Amino acid sequence: MPAQPQHDLRVSLKNRAGSNNAIMPSIKSLTIIAKVRIVAVLNTSSEVEVMKLLYVDVPFEGLPGGDKNRSKAIWKNLSEEFEADLLLIKGPEYATKALEPHQGFRKLYTIGRKEALPHQAKAIYRFHPYQLERFRNILIREQYEVAVFRFMSTFVLAQTVARTLPDCKIAIDVDMLYSRVAEISWHQNHSVKNIDKLWEMLKIKHFEKQAFSHDFWFFFTNSIERDMAVAEYNLDPEKARNFPNLMPMEEPKEYPSPNRSYILYFGSMDSLANQDAFDYLAQEIYPNVREQLRNKGVQIQVAGTNIPDYFYQYQDDCLKIIGQVDDIQEIIAGAEFVILPIRIASGTRTRILEAAQMRKAVLTTSVGTEGFSFGPKELVIRENAEELGQAMLEMLEDKAGTIALGKNLHHTARARYSEKILAERFIKSLKSPLIGVKPKKLRIAIVTNRFHPEAGPAETNIYYQARLLAEINEVTVFSPKRMKFPALERVAGFSHRRLYDVLNNPKVYPNLKEATFCPTLLWYLLIGKYDIIQSYPGINLNSLLAFIAAKIKKKPYIQCFFDFIDYAHHLKTHGKIEKDVLHRKPIRWYQKFVLKHLDYAFSTSEREIEFIKEYNHRVTYSPIPVLTAEFEIPVDKPPLMRTWPEDSFTFLCLGKISKIKGQDIAMEAFCRVASQMPKAKLVFVGKSDSEPEFLENIKMKMLTAGVAEKVHFTGKVERSEAIAWLKHSDINLIPVRFMNSGTVVLESWISETPVLQSDAVDPNLVIDGVNGYLFPNENVEECAEKMLYAYNHKENLKEMALRGKKLVQEKYSYEYLIKLYQSTYQRLMSR
Fold first, then answer.
1. Are 663 and 653 in contact (CB under 8 A)?
2. Which of 27, 308, 550, 603 suits a disulfide with 608, CB 3.0-4.6 Å?
3. What's the angle, vertex CA 532, arms to CA 527 and CA 538, rounded to 5?
4. Distance (Å, whole) CA 221 – CA 231
């Protein structure tokens, strides 16, 4: 096609074979066929409807690179399954060069992009208002049912589709999280001269936060980045799909043997990650093996596009820069193996699959394998320059083993990353009614005594429940006003109304009182057209109002119990928590009334379930879920831990320091066996000013035993640091006198850290010696024995933690809990 000006938007109609015969229909005829379906009449006289789709990408035909290969594969499969139009975004370079012919479209559109303004992220495309208006006209005329966008850079156009065609299904192929590369660029050089990198990182993070809040579907090439987006940006896990890179199924042609033996590093060298990998190879890996390679007559060859000039300064007789090649498959086929010493995560990571297609072994790093699930039978993975260099020599020496690795990689890649299988899955997702077509929503009122961000973990749990429920329902959260925040705001897809607490008199903020009463709650629930009213975390005055409103409106009432009574207060006033404490403490008349007449109840405690069943059989166990993605992001050791010797053994005691948490038991047990554990550390992580006398008692035990240099108190820490302690400690000691739900046990397991806990946790998920260690409640002697045993058998801890992690992944996710709620709603509504 001839070159077109940047701001010119043209359309050419071609047949499915890519004919150049243009047909320019009238606006009237286009309007008539705007909702047309291509109907294939089969021998059985059945009709097959083909959906209209728009695919948006940058030019990809006739261009090298892993990202272009992915574009070609996606477009080929979309054009075969949909009545597909293609829109190509042209950069400034197309002002002087022609666009290579593309195939398979019904209609082809092109649109020019502009450079980003100073306040905008450079990675995000900007368009002239005139072109956006022309684009809107195309959308109105064509009435697409599906729009697929390659790269997050095209997000402005995706927003335009959402505003113009509200019923269109929008999917974005997330090639990479741009913020990861921007963040690395800044962290490589914290200086005033590099401040523009910090500014770019902040702009991109702001963009990604806004982008992932939209009601689109996002397909990630890298599962790690998918989980990062879920954790960092609160992206709905259901809308975050994995769509790995595709392994071509056609067999490559045979190539003649090369003139000499070489190891290959290849890629597009305008990438920061690829440049860094070359620097790593040339400066740190190659010098260690130069002489051995020379003696073996083996070169390292560097092939790829956009080679920077500075690469050539490293070239010698054993390191050769060959630059761009006509046929990359031929260069891969001739190599002994491929080396990809990646240290920075970015890009589509198709090079492993390109090597796999040619049956070539790959030597890389764990970062280089992100998004793939290959093992030691398919890849050689090393983590530092010395190990990578040694592996190069070993692979050259063991030619038979290297060839076997390449064959294994080829067969495994074909099985797991087949273009046919992955493309079918992608297309099925696009056609699924779950995308863009939402089921009938229920209107749900959630009533809670506290709510995120005004309190702690339990309230954060309710927040995530509300957020996930809001994806398939219309949710309003009611809570007392405890901070000077707006009375009504929209948060993560749901409404949050903060009500005046008449017991907060005079008005004091923050309002930390346990008991609250909000009479206006009854009014809001009565005038609201709610299908379900659901209260947390126990039966109090506000949940009584919610119960009354439900009965007046004849709507189902659900009560979720975290703690039926205030166990901490009971311990403080009675000195202990008896096993039959629920029967010892009389319940109020209105609590008894609500228990008997509620429609359904959930409880996190088996003990409380048995008690509730004495009044109402409609109760079941409700797991406290863990946001697993939050724990899959790599974190460094906490600053304090970095000051300790590498071989230190860390006993973690995580949680607010209070009598009910039992930190005094942990301290006394540690003091008894500290002399037998020379490398042991005991660290208390959590708020420490709630019970000053209790804390002083613990510290006195420490000083008396002379173990002060082994014991540390961090005080309250940020969530990220708490996770770092969980992930890097050797074992989590949970000496509680009483605990419902045991969230900290689940968080330890998902962090791959085992637990040593008292049997007071309810429900008790620990099987002693299998997924953790147990000791009887308040039994200091046995706690000490188990601490010493764990210290002396460190080799068992990781396997125990992994058994616990498996349980968390199967039964303690938010998705599992939401499904439990939804099935309950359906039963109650049908009844």
1. yes
2. 603
3. 100
4. 17
Strands 494-499, 488-491: pairing kind: antiparallel
Which among 535, 536, 485 is positioned nearest to 511, based on CA atoms?
A: 485
Reduced 3-state DSSP string for 251-308: CCCCCCCCCCEEEEEECCCCCHHHHHHHHHHHHHHHHHHHHHHHHHCEEEEEECCCCC
pLDDT exceeds 60 at position 3: no
Beta bridge partners of 488: 497
Q: Which residues are 173's β-sheet partners? A: 150, 219
- Number of Cβ within 10 Å of residue 90's Cβ equals 20
Q: Which residues contact 509 (CB under 8 A, 6 or more apart)?
A: 481, 482, 483, 484
Count of other CB atoms within 10 angstroms of residue 345: 21
Q: What is the pLDDT of residues 638-661, one digit of tens each?
A: 999 999 999 999 999 998 899 989
Please tell me what DSSP assigns to residue 441.
Answer: P
The answer to whether residues 784 and 672 touch, using CB atoms and an 8 Å cutoff, is yes
Return the DSSP state at 589.
H
* Predicted local distance difference test score (pLDDT) of residue 24: 37
Is the sign of the CA dihedral 640, 641, 645, 649 positive or negative? positive
Mean pLDDT for the chain overall: 84
Cα 515 to the center of its chain, rounded Å: 37
Residue at token pair 């193996």: 337
**Ordered DSSP codes for 402-434:** HHHHHHHHHHHHHHHSBHHHHHHHHHHHHHSTT
Could you tell me the pTM of the whole model?
0.48
Distance CA 789, CA 783 (A): 10
Tell how strand 761-762 and strand 649-654 pair up. unpaired
pLDDT winner (highest mean) among 182-196, 258-272, 284-298, 452-466: 284-298
CB 258 within 8 Å of CB 298:
no
Are 239 and 217 in contact by the 8 Å Cβ rule? The answer is: yes
**Helix (H), strand (E), coil (C) string for 764-808:** CCCCECCCEEEECCCCHHHHHHHHHHHHHCHHHHHHHHHHHHHHH
CB 340 within 8 A of CB 369: no
pLDDT number for residue 820: 85
Average pLDDT over residues 603-607: 82
CA distances from residue 585 to 514, 578, 579, 615, 763 in whole angstroms, order as listed: 18, 10, 12, 16, 21
User: Are 408 and 378 spatial neighbours (Cβ–Cβ below 8 Å)?
Assistant: yes
Single-letter code of the amino acid located at 603:
S
731/651 Cα distance (integer angstroms): 5
